[in-house]
Give the backbone structure.
Amino acid sequence: MKVLGIDTSTLMSTCAVLDGDRLIGEYSLSQDMSHSEKLVPMVKEVLDSLKLTINDIDLFSVAKGPGSFTGLRIGIATMKAFAHLTDKPIIGVSTLEALAYNLPYNEIVVPMIDARRERVYTAIFKWEGKSLETIMEPCVLEVDKLLDRLNSNHEKIVVNGDGSVVFKERIKDRLKDKVQFSTIGQNMSRASSICELALLKYERGQVDDFYTLAPDYLLETQAQRELRERGK
Amino acid sequence: MIRGVGMLTLAIETSCDETSCAVIKDGRQVLSNIISSQIDIHKRFGGVVPEIASRKHIESINNILQEALDTAEVGFKDIDLIAVTRGPGLIGALLVGLSTAKALAYGLNIPIVGVNHIEGHVCANFIDHKDLEPPFTCLIVSGGHTYLVQANGYTDYELIGRTRDDAAGEAFDKVARSIGLPYPGGPHIDRLAKIGNMESVAFPRVIIDEHTYDFSFSGLKTAVLNHLNQMKQKNEEIIVEDIAASFQAAVLDVLVDKSFRLAKERKSDKLVVAGGVAANEGLRTMMMERGKKEGIKVYYPSKILCTDNAAMIGAAGYFNYINGNVSDLGMKVMPNLDIK
Ligand SMILES: [Zn+2]
């Protein structure tokens, strides 16, 4: 079974192809160019190099958030169109879970994606043997609140994601020797993790529908918030 | 297949608050044109909220796409060309359509054409008027744009005049709000104007006499607001029908006058009206009457093709393709794109 995976939720564009339990291609680029300009050319380059076409793919997997709203929509719109066209299954994978999946067999893994205004998209995961359990569901949190929670509840913590880079000094100051930072290579989203998680979901029958799949933004729009607050 | 004959174009339009997909044959024949409006969602915010528009587009795009194929009774395999709006419009909204379109073009291994939305409005006329061919003079008016162009060819537009401030449609919406009409106000003004007295208030015809083909509507909008304030201060009754009629006449006089002035200067025997405001009954009537008097044939699209829709994007995409304008998978979205 061939799985194509992509993640465009942060500045990194990443695309990978899994053939069963073998990674046969992965391409990641962080450059000052919109995902819209590079994503389809990147998928094409990877598939061309592997002498594959979209029709050879059996499962499409995509990061469904949280992350950049626009980035997520570019990735999801692209993959929904592929799934629609080929009538093959599509699976949306949590961006945070995929980040945690980069760091297997650590005790507590805390991915962080910068959500601006001193906030991060985050979740707390714990490795139980070979599986990744969710301790805290994905959410938006002020960095300080997250650090408070980690400080009082956990000991061996590994962090990754662009949020862990942006707030590195503060994390070090607060969590001291409880925390370790990810290596550079595992710090950013990797499409191979998206593919692998999608494959696990597929085996459990957790397939999405290309008609309805949409990003998990975790944040309502400003207009919706204002309307709700006025209504109170 | 011979290039351009019996050609099926799948078109996608997501530049604002309409999600639309269409299948067009040979640039002028509509096999399907599915338009899903988000207007009811944006109404409560008093205008289009960009982030909400983008969120709605990604939720509905594949449904609209399938409906367009089903209605046209074709499958993806029958499609020869992808056309998609690349601008102007809301960047996040445009990107949903563009991403879908690029994936389809790559997956189907067929060419893709990025279409200028404003050009799309002009091309709506090629669908409704099979005999219409360039050259012609064209007035494009909508909530976002007011342009006077000379179309020298199917894809060759010469920009002659534009608004210096508000678009005509924007002025309609703002004045409508000031007299208590719901968003979008244009159609309500048009309806009330039919029964109101257009001579009740002499609103200014801004820069109508100046030797320019540019427009300006913000002064007119201010004049209406000032008039309403004065009436309120004097405790005089405001007859909204009369305000609507007088305001609409002031806008239309300028639009019609400049359009015909340009048509005559360029010796055009055809004047084409396009864009959302081309659905305005007052504008249509005034254009037709003036056209008869001047011996210039006036064209405007059916009402459904005046709104934002993918069929017009498909028509524009087709004419661009047969004229050799093809895009690539790396094409950029252009939220501030102008007509050439
Ligand atoms: Zn428009």
